[in-house]
Structures are given as C-alpha cells and as structure tokens.
Amino acid sequence: MQASTHAGSVPAATAMTYVGIGQIKPLGAKFELPEAGGAGGCDAHGGTGKAGCGAADGPGDVPQAIWDKIKNHPCYSEQAHHHYARMHVAVAPACNIQCNYCNRKYDCSNESRPGVVSQKLTPEQAVKKVLAVASEIPQMTVLGIAGPGDSLASPAKTFETFRLLQERAPDIKLCLSTNGLALPDMVDEICKYNVDHVTITINMVDPAVGAKIYPWIFWRHKRVTGYEAARILHERQMQGLEMLSARGVLTKINSVLIPGINDEHLIEVNREVKKRGAFLHNIMPLISEAEHGTYFGLNGQRGPSAQELKAVQDACMGGANLMRHCRQCRADAVGLLGEDRSDEFTLDKIEHMEVVYDLDRRRQYQNQVEAERQAQSAAKRQALAQVAATAMDGGAAAAAAGDDALKVLVAVATKGAGRVNEHFGHVSEFQIFEVSATQALFVGHRRVDMYCQGGYGDDEQLPSVVRAINDCHAVLVAKIGACPKDELLQAGIEPVEQYVGEFIEKAALAWFGDYRARVASGAIVHRDRGDAQIRQGAFTGAVARAA
200-250: per-residue pLDDT in tens? Predict the structure, then answer.
C-alpha cells in the first residue's frame, strides 16, 4: 500500500504563494519575462486579452517568430482551425494525479472527451500511425501527446515518440499536454526535442479551491491528499509555466469551468497565468454526465450553461488571450477540430495502407490551403467595410434605434473550410459567432446529435438541437427542411439559407447588416435571447441515439 500524506483542513491563515524559479513569490507579484523569446501571448508579456490570438491575416499583431509557430496550428490559431488538422497519439497511459472530473477509458470508441482512447500505442506504432495519417491528410500539421494519462508521467514513451518523429517527419509541429506536476523537471527534455507548444491544465491558483478538484497526487513516491496535494500541484504548475515562458515555449492553459467551485476563480487564474507568460487560456465546460463515471458526475456536480461559460470567458477579456474553439478532444483524435477520423487509422488498417510520406506534396497542398485562408480573410474585410458603409448611410436611423452597440449570436452549419456549407439536418456541431457592426467573433461551438438519420428527420431529436442554439438570433445553413424551419421560427431563431458556400464571417456580417437595417426601420423588434444548453454528453452521436 502506498504511503499517504494527509494535509487535514486548510490552514486558518495561509498566505497565497507559489514557487517561482529560485524563489517563492506572493500571488500578484509580477514575473518579468526576458525580452528575447517573446513567447508570452501576442507579445512577450502574455498578450492583451484578445479572443483569438493568431487569427489575423498575417504576423502584423504578433512577432514573426510567433506567427511562424501558430499560423498553421489549429489549437493556437482560431482561423487556422478551419483549415488545418491535428492528431493525438495515445502513448502515455500513466497519470500522477486524480481529478474529480476525469475517468480514463481504454478500448473505448463510444465517447469523445479527454482521457478516452480506442488503442494504446508504443512509440514505434505511434510514429507509423502519424506517417499514415500525414500521407492521407496533407493538412495535418500538428502531433500532440495528450495521454490518455499525463504525457510527463510516461516520459520515456513520450520523448521516444518525439525523437522518432523528428527523424521521420521533421515538418510536423510537436505538442504535449500535462497537468504540470512533473513539468519543471522535464523542461530541458521538452526543449531538446523542439516541442514548442505545451498545454498545462490549471484549474486553480488557490490550493483551497484545488482541494475540491484534486483528491490526490502521487509525489515523491507517496500519495498526497487534500490541501497539501493542491498546494504542491499549484507550485509546480506555476514554476513549470515560468520556466517554459523563459525558454520561449508557447503555452496554452486549459481550465475546466466547474460551477460553484472555480467559476469566478478562473478570472484570477487568467490574470496569474498571463503574468507568467501564458500564450492562450482555454476555459472549457465541465463534462459531468453520470454515465462517464467521474466523481463529479456520480455526485451530481453540474456543468455550466452556454451563457455561464461565455460570461466567464468574457470576464477574462483583457487578461491572457482566450481560446474558444477547443473541442475537448479524445487522446487519439485525428482530423480537423470538430471531427474525428481515428477509426480510419487503426493499426490493422494501417497494415494494409500504402504509406508514402511526400513532403513536397504536403507543402503544395498547404500552399493551396493558405490561398483559401487568405481569400477568407479578404472576404471578411470586405464584409466589414460593407457593414460600416451601411451604418454610415443609415446613421440617423441607426442612432434613433439605439443599436450602435448591438451584438447578437449566430449559429453556423459548416463542414469545414470556414464556409456555410452544411445541411441543418447533418450538423453534429454548430459554430457560434458573436456578430456586431465591427466584427464577427468566433465564441464557441455546440455539439448536437444529427437531426437527419437515413434521409429522414428525427422529430424527437429536434427540440434538443433547438435548445443547443437557443441563445442565437439566426442559424446560417446550406439547406433546411420545412419542419425544422418552422420549429426554429417558433423558437425565435431565424433560419437563413441565402449564403450557401460563402465564407462564414462574410455571411454572418451580411446577415447582421440586414438584421440591423430591419431593426432600425421598425420592421422587426430586437429582443434578447435566452440561455442555451451545452450538450453534456461526450458520447458519439450513434451511441447517444441508441441510449
């Protein structure tokens, strides 16, 4: 039996401190990053709180060295995620902490969430799979190790995978995800293998909060519990983050929003990680269905609603740059964010594939992707100019209508490439944009179960789809049937089919210009929408339908 260290209750008077590099600093103290390296956000000090760093047309808002790292990384650039793919390889099964929201499952194809895999791989198997995927998906630019445990709890397997990949596929970016407990001891190895993107899951900067999230950690050959466990984890996370920032490694912070435990506290987390050089902060909703078998799920801890999640994200604007396009991927995910093609690349299928890793072909394809991406940016600029011109032409009416600050949410049915190109009934997730006269800002996504099955609409499924976008004023689709159209209109959501094939931002801004004109003319009355329901299920659609 493992020895245990119990911290007991939280000390009555505990100064909030963390271990920095070579010293202990109080929370709130400023950590000065070196000017060289510039890896702390959109500048060297953690950015300015923009909603999607790297989403601009070019490196104008970031140093060139940072732009080169993020321009085709789908997690670090919101715009890139429409065009570039990633994959995870499940080579790290061990974990050194227990989280109340986590339940790892192996040989599982029925759930889509972190900690779940269908096959665990050796480093050699992982590299073989990466080469097979890269030969079939030339826009796959990023390889990440995200478990199914903690990548740094199985360091030999993680770094052997990276070593082999550097030799066989030198153009692919390397990433890892970690809880941070072992991170300070591994920074040299991370830099040795040119792993220049690291995700750290940080859910608290106060051990009293952390004690409600982490029942134990395994530290120095002992199991440590309670407040003491959270304190050690917190100190190691902060130290590791500072060390990576000082070495020029881009860091993304993942935080799970747990209502009633750390929801308001995440604003402080955002401030503190920015001070220590974090490039992005990804605030994700808790997945808490009891069927997943987590402690929180089995004990009734709920996840946030759509508006609760957005409120916390919005409150963090001005802190570390925000990532809002995360899909909380499986540890063996393959493809664009929002899709999973891992079942196409099982080990038995790879054995029968002709794998040709053609670097020139990959570069040519990615050049085509860049051309499409630039066209998308140009269309967005044109649409913004048109909205601005319309506002000037109808300035008096707009002012009378009091809509200068008007913002609405719009849902978009898309199957990729940043375009409105999906049938309403075939959507497995909607992308959500906040649209105003000055921008069309991606703010999240909503998973749903497909309405159409075998060519027919499932009327029982339709209400859950509507609830998922209930806070939106419109939904942009390639096509929609009469029944769901009537249901949406009855719910106060406008179905829009006129922008088929258009780039999303251009279409959303064009619709908004028309909507604002209708409001200004009195043709319609603008009303605020209600809240929406984040689908707690991380089951695949087929399983959810069968349940």
Answer: 999 999 999 999 999 999 999 999 999 999 999 999 999 999 999 999 999
Contacts of 161 (CB under 8 A, 6+ apart): 89, 91, 123, 126, 127, 145
The torsion angles phi and psi of 434, rounded to 5 degrees, stand at -95, 120
Cross-strand partners of 539 = 111
Sheet (strand 216-219) strand order: 4-6, 222-225, 216-219, 97-98
Q: How confident is the model at residue 34, as a pLDDT?
A: 41
Least confident piece of the model among 269-283, 367-381, 441-455: 441-455
Q: 122-127 — which CB contacts under 8 Å span 24+ positions?
A: 122/91, 122/157, 123/91, 123/157, 123/160, 123/161, 123/164, 124/164, 125/347, 126/89, 126/90, 126/91, 126/161, 127/161, 127/164, 127/165, 127/168, 127/169
Count of residues in the chain: 547
Write the CB contacts of 382 (distance below 8 Å, at least 6 apart in sequence): 506
- Number of C-beta neighbours around residue 501 at 10 A: 10
- For the chain, the average pLDDT equals 82
Q: How far apart are CA 90 and CA 119, in angstroms?
A: 7
pLDDT range class, residue 348, cuts 50, 70, 90: confident
Query: What is d(CA 197, CA 178) in angstroms, rounded to the nearest whole number?
Result: 11
The pLDDT-based confidence of 117 (bands split at 50, 70, 90) is low
Q: Please say whether the dihedral angle defined by the alpha carbons of residues 332, 335, 339 and 343, taken in this order, is positive or negative.
A: negative
User: CB under 8 Å, gap of 24 or more: what pairs does 63-70 form?
Assistant: 63/38, 65/38, 66/38, 66/39, 66/42, 66/250, 69/173, 69/196, 69/197, 69/250, 70/250
pTM higher than the cut 0.85: no
